[in-house]
Amino acid sequence: MLYRIVRPIAALGLKAFYRKIYLTNTDRIPVGKPVILAANHPTAFLEPCILACFLGRPLHFLVRGDLFQQEFYAGLLRSLHMLPVFRFKDGGYGRIKDNYATFEACYTALHEGKTIMILAEGRTIQEKRLRPLQKGSARIPFGALEAYPDLEEVFIVPVGVNFTYADQPRSEVYIDFGQPILARDYYSEYQENANQAITNVIDLLRERMEQHIIIVEREEDDELVEYLHQLHRTGSPYRVWPIISRKDSPLAMEMEIAGKVNGLSAQPRKQLLEECRAYFRKLDLLGIDDRAVGGKDYATPLNVLILVMAFPLFLPGFLWNYPPVWLGKYISDTRVKTLEFKAPVRWAASLGAYVLYPLLWLIVAAIFGHSGLGLLAILLLLLLGHLALYYLEFRDRYRKSRKFRRLTPDQQQQLKEERDAILTFFRQQAVSNS
Question: Do 37 and 145 have their domain in common?
Answer without folding.
Answer: yes
